[in-house]
Design brief:
The protein is an alpha+beta fold. The protein folds into two domains: 237 residues, Aminopeptidase (3-Layer(aba) Sandwich), CATH 3.40.630.10; 89 residues, Elongation Factor Tu (Ef-tu), domain 3. Helices cover 25% and strands 29% of the residues. It has an eight-stranded mixed sheet with strand order 1-2-12-3-13-16-14-15, sandwiched between helices. A six-stranded antiparallel β-barrel has the order 4-5-8-7-6-9. β4 and β5 form a beta hairpin. α4 packs across α8. The mean pLDDT is 94.
Length: 347
C-alpha cells in the first residue's frame, strides 16, 4: 500500500470546518488523476473524471477528523475545550494535543481536573469532557495573547505500521479518502462520470456531502468510511453482533443508522467481489452513519451504498485497520467504478 500517502492524510490536521490542510493534500494527489478539480462553497474538494455514458457516480469520503475548539482560557492559562465530533471521555485520559493558533501550532497535554492517584481515596467518578483542560506549559499571559476562542485543537499522534495493520488517530475517515484516491488511480476504464468528493463536516452531521450532492445531482452515491470491528477482548457480544472483523475483507454495508443501502448496489458490489476474488464481508451497523445518508436524501433521492474498512478502536488515537482490508476496498471500488454505467436502476 501507499503508506506515505495514508500517513500524509492522517497526520494533516483538520476538524470539521477547518479542513484546509487536507484540501492541499487531496488536490495534490487527486488532481493528476482527474479531468477537472474544483472546491465548492462548503470546502468539498471535487475531482471530475469524465465518462462516455450518461450516468454519474458521486464517491464521497470525509476529510474532517474529530477534535476540539478552544472555548475558554482561565486566569492561569489553562484551556477548556468544546468537542467537534463524538468522544468517549475515558479514552482521552493523558493525551497529547496540538492547539492550532494564528501564529502557528502549540503542543500541549490534555488532562482532567482530578486528584492524582497518589492522593485519591475510593473509586474515582467517571470522567466527562467538562473535566478536561489543555496545558500548554506557558505563562497565562502568553496563552491569552496566543490562543483565541475557537482555535482548533487536534490529538497528537503519528500514523504507524503495527504488524499487518496501520494505526492512527484519524483513519476515520482519511482511510476512506485514501481508498478513493487509490481506486481512481487503479481504474482501467471509465464508463460513467465519476465525481470523487473529499467531503467536509461529516462528523457534525454529514453537511458537506449534502451540499455536494445537491449541487452535483449524481445518479448513484458511494460513501467510503470505516466501520466497527468488534473482534477484540471485552466486546462482550456474540460473534454474530461484531459488525465486522479485521482481515475479513472490505465491508459491503447493508444498513446503518443513517441509510439503507440500495439493494441493487449491494448485489452488484457483492457479485463483483465474488467474481474478482476480492475478500469481503457484509455489514450491518446498528448505530452511526456515513455520507451515504446525506447523498441518499438529496434532490429527489439517490440510490446509495457505503463501502467500509473494518477498524478497531474507532474514535480513539489508536484506530487500527488491516492492510489487506484496505487494499480490498481499493480493488472493489475500482472494479465497480469501471462498470457503474451498467447498474440497473429500474424498479
Amino acid at each position: 500500500m501507499n503508506f506515505e500517502l495514508l500517513k500524509r492524510l492522517c497526520e494533516a490536521p483538520g476538524v470539521a470546518g477547518y479542513e484546509d490542510a487536507l484540501r492541499v493534500v487531496v488536490r495534490e494527489e487527486l488532481g493528476p488523476l482527474v479531468d477537472e478539480m474544483r472546491t465548492d462553497a462548503l470546502g468539498n474538494v471535487i475531482g471530475v473524471k469524465r465518462g462516455q455514458a450518461e450516468r454519474s457516480v458521486m464517491v464521497a469520503a470525509h476529510i474532517d477528523e474529530i477534535g476540539f475548539f478552544a472555548k475558554w482560557i482561565d486566569k492561569n492559562g489553562f484551556i477548556r475545550i468544546h468537542p467537534v465530533g463524538g468522544f468517549d471521555p475515558q479514552a482521552l485520559f493523558a493525551q497529547r494535543v496540538v492547539v492550532h493558533t494564528a501564529s502557528g501550532p502549540l503542543p500541549g497535554v490534555l488532562m482532567p481536573s482530578a486528584k492524582p492517584a497518589h492522593l485519591r481515596e475510593g473509586t474515582p467518578k467517571p470522567l466527562t469532557l467538562d473535566d478536561y483542560f489543555v496545558d500548554l506549559g506557558l505563562p497565562a499571559e502568553t496563552v491569552a495573547s496566543s490562543v483565541q476562542i475557537g482555535d482548533m485543537i487536534t490529538l497528537d499522534r503519528q500514523t504507524v505500521r503495527t504488524g499487518d495493520c496501520v494505526t492512527s488517530k484519524a483513519l476515520d475517515d482519511r482511510l476512506g479518502v485514501y481508498v478513493m484516491i487509490e481506486a481512481v488511480r487503479a481504474m482501467r476504464s471509465v464508463g460513467a462520470t465519476i465525481y470523487a468528493v473529499a467531503t467536509t463536516q461529516e462528523e457534525v452531521g454529514l453537511r458537506g456531502a449534502r451540499g455536494a450532492a445537491e449541487g452535483l445531482h449524481p445518479d448513484i452515491g458511494v460513501a467510503l468510511d470505516i466501520t466497527l470491528a468488534l473482534d477484540i477482548p471485552g466486546s462482550e457480544m456474540p460473534e454474530q453482533n461484531r459488525v465486522s472483523a479485521l482481515g475479513g475483507g472490505a465491508a459491503i454495508k447493508i444498513m446503518d443508522g443513517s441509510s439503507i443501502s440500495d439493494r441493487r448496489l449491494v448485489s452488484q458490489f457483492r457479485d463483483i467481489a465474488r467474481r474478482e476474488n476480492i475478500p469481503h464481508q457484509m455489514e450491518l451497523l446498528p448505530r452511526g452513519g456515513t455520507d451515504a445518508g446525506a447523498i441518499q436524501l438529496s434532490g429527489s433521492g439517490v440510490p446509495s451504498i457505503t463501502l467500509s474498512v473494518p477498524t478497531r478502536y474507532v474514535h480513539t488515537v489508536n484506530e487500527t485497520a488491516h492492510v489487506n482490508d484496505i487494499q480490498g476496498a481499493v480493488d472493489l471500488l475500482a472494479r465497480y467504478l469501471e462498470e457503474a454505467h451498467t447498474t440497473d436502476l429500474n424498479w
